[in-house]
Structure formats: structure tokens, C-alpha cells
Amino acid sequence: MQERRFSDAERALKEVKNKKFTNEEYKAGYVNALDGLLLSVRSGDERDFCNKVAFTSENSKNYRAEFKEFSAKPIRTSFDRGYFAAWQDLMQYKYNLEK
After folding, report:
1. SS3 sequence, the chain?
2. pTM for this model (two decimals)
3. pLDDT single digits (tens) 5-49
4. Residue that wins the pLDDT comparison between 13 and 74
5. 90 CB contacts (<8 Å, ≥6 apart)?
6. Residue 1 above 50 pLDDT?
7. What is the distance between the alpha carbons of residues 63 and 39, in angstroms, rounded to a whole number?
8. What angle do CA 11, 16, 19 make, to 5 degrees?
């Protein structure tokens, strides 16, 4: 069952990689975050954020707000904004699952 989830995640990631983005640097950051997330979860290393945090609806909501704040900083590059946007999307997804 777990391997099937990874296969689904890899398919979804491939779809994102094949999507057209108006900003390639933003896309690179977004895809980089998703690649890292998949690698982290697959490794199971309990020191990694995704493996050690309890994703309650409240936590997910708070983390999403933090990632949104990170990406809004004017010193961020397009890559950074894409990277944090992927995290925001993940936290929104987790929040929706917990509701």
C-alpha cells in the first residue's frame, strides 16, 4: 500500500514537471520543494520536518501561514517564492484532509 502512494506521488510530480509555468525560476523552486518532500517522506528520517511534525488541522493552517509569510518577503527570488508556494499547497492539502 505504501509503495502505491509513492507511485501516485511520483506520477503527480511528473505532471507538475510537465506543466507550463509563466516563470521558469518559480517552477524550478516549486518542483525542487516537491522533489525534496518526496525524498524526505520516502527516507522516513524522523529529523525531517515532514516526518516529525504532527499534521493537525491547526498546525497545517499555522504552517501554511508561515510559508505564505516567507514567500511574501520582497527579498525572495522567484525560485524562493515557488519553493514556499509548494509548501503552502502541501499545508493546505494537509489542512483539508484534517477538516
Report:
1. CHHHHHHHHHHHHHHHHHCCCCCHHHHHHHHHHHHHHHHHHHHCCCCCHHHHCCCCHHHHHHHHHHHHHHHHCCCCCHHHHHHHHHHHHHHHHHHHHHC
2. 0.79
3. 888 889 999 999 999 999 999 999 999 999 998 888 888 888 888
4. 13
5. 37
6. no
7. 20
8. 125
CA 67, CA 44: separation in Å to the nearest integer?
Answer: 23
Output the pLDDT for position 2.
46
The set of long-range contacts for 53-58, using a CB threshold of 8 Å and a minimum separation of 24, is 55/94, 55/97, 55/98, 56/98, 57/95, 57/98, 57/99
Q: For the chain, what are the domain ranges?
A: 2-98
Report the candidate in 66, 77, 68, 97 with the shortest Cα–Cα distance to residue 32. 77
Q: How far is CA 23 from each of CA 26, 67, 90, rounded to the nearest angstrom?
A: 5, 20, 20
